Fold each of these.
Amino acid sequence: MTLVVFDLDGTLLNGESRLSEYTAETLILMQSAGIAYTIATGRTLQAALSPLDGHRFALPHILKNGVIIWCPDQETYSHSHLLTQQEVSHVLTAMTDQEITPFVFTLESDGRHAVYHGTLKNEIEGRMAQLFEDERKLPLEPLSAMPDSSSVICLSAMGPDESVQAVIDGVASEPGLVSYTGTAIQNQKLRWMDIHHSNGSKGDGVTTLREELGFDKVMVFGDGENDLSMFEVADESYAPANGQAAVKSKATEIIGHHNEDGVARFLRKRFSLGHL
């Protein structure tokens, strides 16, 4: 049996962060053919569920780049690689020193999710905060209100290239942390970054699901740096034409652009799922 694993943004979702009608129909065809599929994304649970609603993603979801695995049927997490506030305190200090506002995603002791943030310094950070609270339905509170019992899923931030790089360089020497980064707003030279537990990766999540669910093979699709770990453990890996160069160089094959249903068109041809 083969498990198909999709990255979301830039891969399965289109430029509007939605499943196109063609891709949604392809998922139905996969269900009818008995082909198992799930996601491995950098998104939180709330952010991932929104575009997937109604499309029968029944298997466990690999979230926040493998930090947590969500089981929809049990509505609980089966695996997690969380951090204590003490383990990330120096990262928060580094962000503050670089005048970058941290957003700390947490899992509370009662199972709730929340986001705590430093002082918002500009309109862009304000829009980020609004996105988390309104679109992704995450409670948003000041960093000073974070309970000592909160476990950290990840730290996220956006800032100038050189400031973000200074924080990333500091994390590189930490054995328990890993960072991902990329361009946020090109013409303003802004980058985003995510920092989380080094044991959490998409590759680790894919390996866990393969072993626990008993799949013989794994086929993965991804476009970014955070997908490379699952490319390394998969039997087949595919990058859309819009993928980063480093990712496409590691792929089994480069397929169509995410805005042109590249993943869905490949799957219909590969598994003979009807008309293309």
Amino acid sequence: MYSWAFFDLVCGGPKEAKAQAVAWRDAQLANLKALTLVEFHERHRSNNVSGMPGVHFHKTARQPLGFWQAKIRFHDGKSRAKAFSVRLHGYEEAFRLAVAARTELLAQVENRPYLHHPVAKRLCRQR
């Protein structure tokens, strides 16, 4: 995340401050490389304890030994998940299968820029 403050008094008023802020934002977006959807889904997050993004261990009343789940949410809002029981496969094998399933799910993701803001999309197309 990048930020910069543009104060009305320093910039000569609110309109000038906004114009400078928009110009600074556009310059930053033009110089930054956008993450692709694949790179976004491969990012390690601080709350991930399995070591593999999108792979999680769950325990439920129906599965007291637990199961490993590979999950992905696509850009259109749909998600897919595959689960592997520890009772059926064993702990290590269920984890290995979940990692393989996550890799298969990741192959279905479009490799295009991960952008939401219309200005960022426009600047990415211009590059």
Amino acid sequence: MADETFDLGRATGILADAVGEPGNRRFRILARNEYELANLWVERQQLEAMAAAVEKLLTETPQAVGADDPDRPPREGPLSFDLRPNIEFRVGQLALGYQEQRQLFVLLAHDIEAGQGAAPTFSCLVSREQLQAFGFGVHALIAAGRPRCPICGLPSSEGSHDHARSNGHSKGG
């Protein structure tokens, strides 16, 4: 799939999701339009970085005058992600941008198998509201996982664990 490119166009929905139990989860970004569903497998760190990029971009991009989104796709009832994905790959690199003319945000994803300098494997356009909701969803998803130790930053399970940075037994250091 590394040679194929997919332009979803204007997304009707985008969300972050996890499959499995905390400590053994796989993360993904689901994006869809009326006919297609993309299942983009990502690492937890990629999602955390994407949430930070969302916050930064929303802060730096002025909100358009007029609250209505003229390009907003019609939607009735709750948005379903029950389609079988027809676009699916493991993401190596994510990027986020803004299309000023259309006042929409652009999500780009590169297949991990694509070579350096290759065109993005996937792209879609989302509104400010969709991007904001996506960012909140990522934070909620990450918070639902195993808590991070405030001392070493590693995931901590119930009970104690060693703090390699503070006990002098860190490897390589």
Amino acid sequence: MSFGVRDAAPVLPPWIRKQKLRLGELHEIKRQMREGGLYTVCEEARCPNRSECFSRHTATFLINGAICTRHCAYCAIAHGRPGPLDPDEPAKLVATARAMGLHHVVITSVDRDDLPDGGADAFVACLSGLRELPDPPSTEVLTPDFRGEMELVDRIIAAQPDVYNHNVETVPRLYRSVRPSGRYGWALEVLRRVTETAPGMIRKSGLMVGLGETRDEVVEVLEDLAGAGCQIVTIGQYLQPTAAQIPVVRYWHPDEFAGLEREGRKLGLEVIAGPFVRSSYRAEEAYRTLAGAR
């Protein structure tokens, strides 16, 4: 699907145009990932921060293959019918994380609605393998909603990641057009489940702006997240990855992001907001900050 000229995005403002990619750093980390037979969501989703994060030798591993069973309007990850899982993928991830000397490992996944476990057991295998390393890194998972099946969330909680992240992505009004296979209620329930089952585990979520939401709607989402027990929220500008994804409606000004951070603080949330903020951007720093405050 491609969006036509009538849906063209507004002109890029200067605070968006200034972002640069450092290609040398990109290629080096991509090489290490490819040698390990792995994917990063940084590349598959065309994250604008990928060169900065790669320069810090930080990356978010994408497991359960690189083909998603859902077709969200904002996402550049390939969708369709996935192939079988690679049984060696968790071991490859652990070996690559060790070779890269990572201190904080983020693991996410495509949606695998075709699997009975939704791909949850692969998260468990990766976390278990990382814990067995001589110098285990801290870990963060960014999971699917598992179509509201909380037993699958429980499996991952039991594997004890340091941070459990599930993104709400957008405001409830836009779910049907932006995230048609998801449910806002499922997203909140994942976070509530972690809060109730493992109150010592850090809870995190994130959303995009620029898809047509209002400021009041975003603040309402922050209120919902605080009510679900979320602690860290990332908010970033949606940037259309290719012509196949939904266009940007408007670009939020940096001052507006600063205002959302202030609103979050009123609710007791650690909100990290900015034009290029993404859910895994400087994830280790956010984790260390909150963990150290305890």
